[in-house]
Amino acid sequence: MEKKERFQQLNSALAKLSEEQRELLVLSRFQGLKYEEISKINGTTVGVVKVKIHRAINKLREVYFESV
């Protein structure tokens, strides 16, 4: 599979996530923010952020591999 195809599949999988899940993944994985920083932005605890990011990653993995 080409890099361009993988990128398109990733974008497609990200689009299937909820807005909150996308935002959390972008902040944590693409922008490199720490859980503490994200919790301040979202007004939640670090524990809640960790759980939501974990669930978002699992959902992304599920959606991504359905399309492969």
UniProtKB/TrEMBL annotation:
<keyword id="KW-0805">Transcription regulation</keyword>
<dbReference type="InterPro" id="IPR014284">
    <property type="entry name" value="RNA_pol_sigma-70_dom"/>
</dbReference>
<keyword id="KW-0804">Transcription</keyword>
<dbReference type="InterPro" id="IPR036388">
    <property type="entry name" value="WH-like_DNA-bd_sf"/>
</dbReference>
<dbReference type="Pfam" id="PF08281">
    <property type="entry name" value="Sigma70_r4_2"/>
</dbReference>
<feature type="domain" description="RNA polymerase sigma factor 70 region 4 type 2">
    <location>
        <begin position="8"/>
        <end position="60"/>
    </location>
</feature>
<protein>
    <recommendedName>
        <fullName>RNA polymerase sigma factor 70 region 4 type 2 domain-containing protein</fullName>
    </recommendedName>
</protein>
<dbReference type="GO" id="GO:0003677">
    <property type="term" value="F:DNA binding"/>
</dbReference>
<dbReference type="InterPro" id="IPR013324">
    <property type="entry name" value="RNA_pol_sigma_r3/r4-like"/>
</dbReference>
<dbReference type="InterPro" id="IPR039425">
    <property type="entry name" value="RNA_pol_sigma-70-like"/>
</dbReference>
<dbReference type="InterPro" id="IPR013249">
    <property type="entry name" value="RNA_pol_sigma70_r4_t2"/>
</dbReference>
<keyword id="KW-0731">Sigma factor</keyword>
<dbReference type="GO" id="GO:0006352">
    <property type="term" value="P:DNA-templated transcription initiation"/>
</dbReference>
<keyword id="KW-0238">DNA-binding</keyword>
<dbReference type="GO" id="GO:0016987">
    <property type="term" value="F:sigma factor activity"/>
</dbReference>
